[in-house]
Amino acid sequence: MPPMPPMTKALLLICTAVFCAQALLGGYLPLTAWLALWPLGSGNFMPWQLITYAFLHADIGHIFFNMLGLWMFGSELERLWGGKRFLQFMTAGVLSAAACQLIISPIFGSVAPTIGISGGLFALLLAYGMLFPDRTIMPLFPPIPMKARTFVLVFGLIELGMGVAGMMGVAHFAHLGGMLGGWLMIRYWRGQPPFPRRRRW
Question: Which residue intervals define the domain Peptidase S54 rhomboid in the entry (predicted)?
């Protein structure tokens, strides 16, 4: 197994350290007040939350699956892109997920804060499906092997269906926003519409 690239490792360690800090503080509520992404009309929103919310996680299952996905998909993409481009891509996914959540929250009347790096992870999923469409993936749920492009399409449709159905507790539209940000970032790098033409990467 090749060593984990530095940016992927750094994100994993930061998220784990923040989660441990949450536990030491008796839960995630103290940090949530400052670092989670609060809706615009809540009175608690601060600009830095557009980034900091990604480093918070609700429970051990939340952080475990996010870190597993970060390791599985982020490591290979960082080895392909390099650390700088990988970090740019993750930032685009996290920011677009946050923007989407801020737009959707008042529509559904949500006043709850959003936490987790899932938006960036869904951006990685999209990139993996675009760059390695024929790779076979064995997801944990369901444990059925499928092509990477099929895996991304299935998860995207599931998130869209759950979001439209108004299933609360998970920021489904933030996940889709992360995928949108990843897709736009790749098109920007490639010089494809809606961005001006540039040298291909």
Answer: 46-186
Residue from 8, 146, 168 nearest 76 by CA: 8
Query: Within 10 Å of residue 121's Cβ, how many Cβ atoms?
Result: 28
The span from the CA of 4 to the CA of 145, in Å, is 24
Tens-place pLDDT, residues 36-60 = 999 998 888 999 999 999 999 989 9
Q: How confident is the model at residue 28 (pLDDT cuts 50, 70, 90)?
A: low
Identity at 148, one-letter amino acid code: A
d(C-alpha 56, C-alpha 18), whole Å = 7
pLDDT at 199 over 70: no
**Cβ 62 vs Cβ 90: under 8 Å:** no
pTM (2 decimals)? 0.90
**Whole-number Å distance between alpha carbons of 102 and 166:** 15
